[in-house]
Amino acid sequence: MGHSDIEERLRREVVVVCSQDGVCVARDGQAQRLLELAIGDSFVDCVDPGSRAKLAALLERAQSGPVESWELCVSVRGAPTTFTFDAERSDEGVVMVGSAVRTAQTDAVASYQRSMADLADLHRETARQKAELARLNLELSESIDGLKSLHAELDEKNDTLRRSADVKARLVANVSHEFRTPINSILGLSRLLLDRADGDLSDEQAVQVGFIRTSAETLRALIDDILDLSKLEAGKVSLRPRPFSVKELMSALRGTMRALPRAEQVELVVEDARDIPDITNDDGKIAQILRNLVSNALKFTPQGRVEVSARLTDAHVIFEVSDTGIGIPSELHDTIFEDFTQVDGELQRKVKGSGLGLAVSRRLASMVGGSITVASQPGRGSVFTLTVPRVHEEAAQMQALESRAKALDPRRAPVLVVEDDRQTMFLYEKYLAQAGFQVIPARTVDDARARLQTLRPAAIVLDVMLEAETSWKFLSELKERPETRDIPVMVVTVVDSSQKARALGADEFWLKPIDPERIRRKLSEMARRGPVSVLIVDDDATSRYLVRRLLEDTPYLLYEASGLDEAIALAREKLPRVILLDFVLGDATAFDVIDDLKAHPATRNIPVIIQTAKTLDAVERERLTRDATAILSKQSLSRELAITRIREALETSGIRSLGDGHAS
Ligand code: ADP
Questions:
Q1: Ligand 1 binding pocket includes 325 (Cβ within 6 Å)
Q2: Are the beta carbons of 234 and 169 closer than 8 angstroms?
Q3: The whole model's pTM is what?
Q4: Which of 468, 484, 491, 557 could form a disulfide with 531 if both were Cys (CB 3.0 to 4.6 A apart)?
Q5: Which of 457, 409, 411 is nearest to 550 (CA)?
Q6: In angstroms, what is the span from residue 351 Cα to ligand 1's centroid?
Q7: How many angstroms separate the alpha carbon of residue 226 from the centre of ligand 1?
Q8: Sheet holding 67-76: strands in order across?
């Protein structure tokens, strides 16, 4: 509805003619209807008392000329109404022509007009914002394009950087190695000269050779540091956490540090740490860090004392190396840990060093799960604090994994993983657990042999390059022994030696790094290929069905026999790994089956689990305890119990056949 339509509907044309004293002398029909005004009525009565003075003033004004847009409040059938009109004097009286609009409606119109104006404003604002948005959008899409190309550029730079970092690491490692040999020769030869092995030296010559020797020593220390750093950066340093005694670490430190050169007035005190219990972390790396800190302390302490202490908190050991030396200005506390940084100073110029020791130490500290901090003031000495966890996280995870592997989970097929790298082991566990396998970890070939005495895994994952050995011999051993021959073995290694692996009998050969998804798929396939077969012997079809249901979803391959002859035939043909045997079989009993099995070498060692609903008498029980591996009562048979008994039977059969060299 348009603005003017509304106004039109609200407008009421009204004509009233009044005498000077406000008496109506004429009016049109509209006025008569709206104002209920008759001729001779007082118009004044129609007007609100508040407006009456205004009416009198108007009638007065109209005498002297026309009046425009005069407003009065009148009452139209009780509703307050605004009467807006023009007035003019005529012979009959004052003629008022105007419109009556309900006061409430006047407000409505006004507020409607305001709303319209607001709306128009809003519209304009929206249009403006829309334009702004379009502009921003354009800018954004330009920025995105920019970002994309920046990203691509960064990727490229990253690649180049990575490549050059690789090249640098290799170069540094190679060059440093190349340097080592001649430097060692120089050291050896200068030693010979100084020892006067080939005749005397003049004093001057001795001094000169001494200089040669010190310079060569400095150079060797520098190269050792560079090598350490490049190995750390290339991730070539591996962590070897193990339980060790802090007390022994401290006493070894005392021994090595005592031999270091130090100023005459400096006392070196290495605390006993007698009351600190063993911790599980990489002792080699911790010792290397401490040696570094102590040798620094000795270098930069012209007099006073260098002290090493160790104390325990809940989860950490805190080592402190404090000295009364020259100290380090606080603004350099961070920079000294960067590569090749040294604090300029008089003493600095005299002592040897590469500026790499602390950089290496900090990296080592982070490897052992710890950190190094420094507190120091020039002239007042320094305290370097090394905090390390009492049990390295990796070791803790490994312990947890090992203890999980101690209890076999009957719902999972065990996979023996022979692998020395913990991280890889965790990966195997993560992925194989998801696929329904239980990882049995072995870090060495001996570990693996020990586990095989009590366990027959569904498969073996075999890393070849172990820490101190290769596992080739173990592989051929596995494939030669009848009791382990059919366990599928997948060989995983860093060097391509698939031919050798296959020649020794490996079922699979993979190069590292492992692809977890592929390993999972392969293992599932292999576990299916060589399943453990179980023969169920029962004359009652319902009982066989029940056992079948109990063993659903297990890796076991099930055969069924309903009577004595069928059981014997299947046992000979399939050579099941376990037989679940009902005690009463029609006319026969379990003893008949057992007698037959024992009579034949091929079936003699198959473990038999007796299942029975019958209460056995003493004689029967005694015989069965001798001849059967386990007795299961049908009443209390559960899936858990059945699987556990089968697994135990498999294990004892493994031990029995391994018995010629190992157990029993
Ligand atoms: P460097 O081989 O030069 O000792 P580091 O990385 O071990 O290299 O140490 C870096 C620098 O930090 C040293 O050169 C020395 O300036 C300063 N610094 C390290 N330890 C101490 C200390 N205990 N007292 C004073 N200054 C030290």
A1: yes
A2: yes
A3: 0.53
A4: 557
A5: 411
A6: 10
A7: 16
A8: 24-27, 13-18, 94-102, 79-89, 67-76
